Amino acid sequence: MAEGKTESPGPKKRGPYISSVTSRSVNLMIRGVVLFFIGVFLALVLNLLQIQRNVTLFPPDVIASIFSSAWWVPPCCGTASAVIGLLYPCIDRHLGEPHKFKREWSSVMRCVAVFVGINHASAKVDFDNNIQLSLTLAALSIGLWWTFDRSRSGFGLGVGIAFLATLVTQLLVYNGVYQYTSPDFLYVRSWLPCIFFAGGITMGNIGRQLAMAEQP
Amino acid sequence: MTLTERLREKISQAFYNHGLLCASYPIPIILFTGLCILACCCPLLKLPLPGTGPVEFTTPVKDYSPPPVASDHKPGEPSERPEWYVGAPVAYIQQIFVKSSVSPWHKNLLAVDVFRSPLSRAFQLVEEIRNHVLRDRKLRNLLPEHGCLLLSPGNFWQNDRERFHADPDIIGTIHQHEPKTLQTSATLKDLLFGVPGKYSGVSLYTRKRMVSYTITLVFQRYHAKFLGSLRARLMLLHPSPNCTLRAESLVHVHFKEEIGIAELIPLVTTYIILFAYIYFSTRKIDMVKSKWGLALAAVVTVLSSLLMSVGLCTLFGLTPTLNGGEIFPYLVVVIGLENVLVLTKSVVSTPVDLEVKLRIAQGLSSESWSIMKNMATELGIILIGYFTLVPAIQEFCLFAVVGLVSDFFLQMLFFTTVLSIDIRRMELADLNKRLPSEACLPPAKPVGRPARFERQLAVRPSTPHTITLQPSSFRNLRLPKRLRVIYFLARTRLAQRLIMAGTVVWIGILVYTDPAGLRTYLAAQVTEQSPLGEGALTPMPVPSGVLPASHPDPAFSIFPADAPKLSENQTLLGEPPEPGGPAEGAQDSPVPEVTWGPEDEELWRKLSFRHWPTLFSYYNITLAKRYISLLPVIPVTLRLNPREALEGRHPQDGRSAWPPRRPGLGGPWEAGPRAPGTAQAHGDVTLYKVAALGLAAGMVLVLLLLCLYRVLCPRNYGQPGSGPGRRRRGELPCDDYGYAPPETEIVPLVLRGHLMDIECLASDGMLLVSCCLAGHVCVWDAQTGDCLTRIPRPGQRRDSGVGSAFEAQESWERLSDSGKGGPEEPGDSPPLRHRPRGPPPPALFGDQPDLTCLIDTNFSAQPRLLEPAQPEPRHRAGCSRARDGPGYDFSRLVQRVYQEDGLAPGPAPALRPPSPGPGPPLTPEEDGVCPPEKGSPSLAWAPSADGSIWSLELQGSLIVVGRSSGRLEVWDAIEGTLRCSSEEVSSGITALVFLDKRIVAARLNGSLDFFSLETGTALSPLQFRGRSSSPASPVYSSSDTVTCRLTHTVPCAHQKPITALKAAAGRLVTGSQDHTLRVFRLEDSCCLFTLQGHSGAITTVYIDQTMVLASGGQDGAICLWDVLTGSRVSHMFAHRGDVTSLTCTTSCVISSGLDDLISIWDRSTGIKLYSIQQDLGCGASLGVISDNLLVTGGQGCVSFWDLNYGDLLQTVYLGKNSEAQPTRQILVLDNAAIVCNFGSELSLVYVPSVLEKLD
């Protein structure tokens, strides 16, 4: 989150700068870059968490290193998060209902913390069986949405993202690009959609906050 | 539904009572809460401290057997065995502790001899041990070949005695793998020696001359018989006579899980997120006395609630098994700081004028429902989590529930109380601050004024009417942010200090860790004083660690599996050490006695606690969550006599000391690469070199930084008020970064003529109208500063019957004033006032000199008889002012004098010498000097034209005056004649709007009158634009008829008096004390909206052509409204106390309040950008010159600010006279002149360069 904190402009301090400096496209670009770096960072950190459980998605050869996953994974996550983070405010605007619920940086930070916590739980907590794990994570993800988002568009987008991302991983696994150490459901981990859903909500939250900080 | 309502009411009532309680008894409640926290945290003392240190457990060595794999004791059963003592250990470690000394010490022995031959005995011992395995035939099949690891110092030389003997530099070999930096984990030397470095005695400068090392055996299995026989044999071979070690106990050491970097990174990330969360949360706390104090209290609340939850759980027998550090951030996030913030915000937003107790109670009760609801929701979520039936999650939930409850408890008791204390402090601080500003400008000013005054005269710039904005270098500085950072660094000298500290630490580390550094040097110092003398020391060849590149790495030559076979061939074992016999040479030092004490028994404790994990990690065995067993050490004592020591000596050892005795020995190694034979002095030289280099580097760095500082910061930077500044340093106007630009000084055009504080100011760019409390109106030319007209107060006409007696009231006041305050007056006034005469007598004609000065057109030397700081209550109703002064009425004598105005520079009064004495007979002359006034139309005033002026407007050459009597008057500004008046309603006119031919008057009774002005000739401002200040060219002839017709009346626009009135864009906005605003259309005076949203009386209103409406009230809030729809756009709590004035630019809203703060808000978002602290009493003085230039007033100065960045551009001091006075009001004229109101005088400041900036 360090990048996110330093690069994302605080709304209060730099208000005049943003409004005077950034045109619309520059604004968009800055937000995209910030979101990209946040995504890369989160991907690296969460991957480390998964490694500890030995359920890594990626070849476990270079486990000791931070950059243990395949090189293309963090950029992919970064791009995905940039897209999601830009998509959320965009959809809000098109639907004409600006997101007003808890629009503060502290709330966003809380959301990110809960997201990392969900990942942490999925990595560290021993569950009896995978169904229990999946159910718990699903409940947690929905709780995350309820606590920090509460918008129907956010929920829909989150579900869509989860579905798409799971599909993509499924395809990748089928094609043998990588595999899981212990797949439990059709060659993938069954909790994956929950994580994707929570991630989508989180990135959308950050994206909305960034858009709010920069646009007025 | 009703149930909910009732519940809600109950909760709110309970919270209200609770808030009252908390605010009433803060200290007892805080003490009680502290006790509760301590009591709940008590059980935590029993918990083991978290950490990765090893844990020990001791068992007797007698009939020891490894514990069973499966723990047989039940979990609940008390057991002395720790939980980890299950199954066989990773390894058994047997240390054979060798202490060896050369005795008796011979004088011609070298320092090397202390350890060379003792170390060589290690090879013997190692072989002995190996052969012991083979000797005991019965054990042969018991001992597995691969089961034993044997470490000894001999491993440095690959366990090859020949290599050891050929090695010219033992110390170098030993130290070659020592790291240069500080190292906390075990080094190779420690591993092989098995004793901490300082105990080994392998050093050139030890005094004890005793060498100790261990041979470490690592077994995988425990064989009591083998170990027993090994112990017996070694004790037999090398008896230790005075050994008292009791080999009785076996120590098991359990190592905890180590945290690796991979686990640390997510942990660190979560903590960073946590801190970001706390940061963003506490940033929202606003409008309190000490922001940081409250933020700290909030964090303390959350943390102690966590501690309490852990403590309570422990108390009820729930031992935490989760890793506390890992779940802690999540717990904080779950519990959250939200409640605390909500509480703060709600309490802060209660009306300021309430009592603290009531504020707290109100704030609490208004948020009670949401707090309870949130808490119930969170508890529900956690309960759901509890039913996932996953043990870890259940435990987390349990902690979270207890944490939530205790957090609620703390919020209600601890935080609320802290908040009440804070708010009370704020109110006290407010009171302390407000007090002097009410009693503004006390008469007793500092006495040291004359001296400073002289100085200012000297420095005053020669161009009086220009403000030179700062040189370009300065002005550019404020733009880039990075330069500010550099400034900040430079100001605090942060980098300088950091680098210096870093250098010192670096030098220290270098000196300390260098093998030839301080340690050895100190040791040498000690040894030099020893009887051994320098002869043996200085010539010692110490090739410091330089080894041939091809030197094989001798580390870890662990015995191969077939090592025992190899050692069979060697026959060196079993050679008993000869008892120390008499050696050749006199023994001149005491025999170092080899003693064994209880401290030797557990020497391994002195090793680094990472010693064993490091050792095992070299073999890829982790000790995390496992344990090893340490067997009791076997003591071995070796006594060597000097002869043996000499035999073992390497030819190079004593080369420079005395000729080598046995040059032939170790011949093949003679040719071996050798380090240059530097002397012992080498060490010293290195030390000095390092020290000198470090010192030089440090100095260079400091100098470099100094240069950088000089280059980046101009000389006067940071000391703007060099010398005795007028303000104290703390008061210097400076921006957020502490950057205070240099101040300048100009002489403004001072407009004098009022004798009392100026209350109303109006201008249309060309003319300036001012009205003082005394009720007379002056019209000034805004360009030249000439007084064009003086319209005197109409009161007391009945008495005089001639002219206008505008001074009556002043003279009354002066009389009563000089009676009271006469003695003080001379004390502080003379240096300031250019009064050619002595102090005025307290008599009635103290005001006579005023006369002469009033006639003087430049008004530059007018004495001010009235104390400017006089606490003047704003008596609006002039009649109520009649005080019980002396019974005479001198006003009739003097009032005619004051008919003099700018129009009639009568010559006669100027001729009058100032007469100090009371002179009543002067009146007739005075009467006679002003004949021109007699014919003026002002004579036509009705006697009822009474009441003080409450509002004033100017447009074209017409002045509209609203009086407290309800009378509306239209005056000609140039001629000073009354054109028309209207007197239908007797309720005072509180506010006026004069917009082309239309006059709107707001009255005290809440009604609104619309007048239209009809003139005979067209009222065109252009007619007199550009006209110079010649008073002799009137625009309107007196014959022009101006009539004022009441077109419409809104009888009850507001319930309470209308306090604010503004018009723009065809709309009229009124603000009233009944907390509402109303928007009228100007054309048909139709009410469009009633705007509700303030919780206090409206004090100020702003509307501009873009239809943006802003209003400020006594509740300290600012509301922005959309005039088209009548909806509230935003609402911000801006000030403590009233909002005194409001203006908007295209991008921001500027507000000032009674708290002497000017706040700048983003207009679209309502976010506060920054605020400017004003001087006391200058709170409301602000003006906007352009969209990005703000001017504020201070004590005798005005400051220019860049609105976009909040930068202070410049502070301009306005001459000497206005020095001590606060700027009451600032009016910005079109031609970039600024009018400042300093009490009874006005200053006209031209800012030409501001114009340049605008272009």
TrEMBL record, chain A:
Pfam families: INSIG. The keyword Transmembrane applies. Its main location: endoplasmic reticulum. It is found in: Endoplasmic reticulum membrane. Interacts with SCAP; interaction is direct and only takes place in the presence of sterols; it prevents interaction between SCAP and the coat protein complex II (COPII). Associates with the SCAP-SREBP complex (composed of SCAP and SREBF1/SREBP1 or SREBF2/SREBP2); association is mediated via its interaction with SCAP and only takes place in the presence of sterols. Interacts with RNF139. Interacts with RNF145. Belongs to the INSIG family. Mediates feedback control of cholesterol synthesis. This is Insulin-induced gene protein. The lineage of its organism: Eukaryota, Metazoa, Chordata, Craniata, Vertebrata. The gene is INSIG2.
Automatic annotation (TrEMBL), chain B:
Residues 568-596, 647-667, 791-850, 863-888, 902-938 are annotated as: Disordered. InterPro entries: Beta-prop_SCAP (IPR057042), HMGCR/SNAP/NPC1-like_SSD (IPR053958), Quinoprotein_ADH-like_sf (IPR011047), SCAP (IPR030225), SCAP_N (IPR057041), SSD (IPR000731), WD40/YVTN_repeat-like_dom_sf (IPR015943), WD40_repeat_CS (IPR019775). It is found in: Cytoplasmic vesicle, COPII-coated vesicle membrane; Endoplasmic reticulum; Golgi apparatus membrane. The keyword Nucleotide-binding does not apply. SMART domains: WD40 (SM00320). Belongs to the WD repeat SCAP family. This is Sterol regulatory element-binding protein cleavage-activating protein.
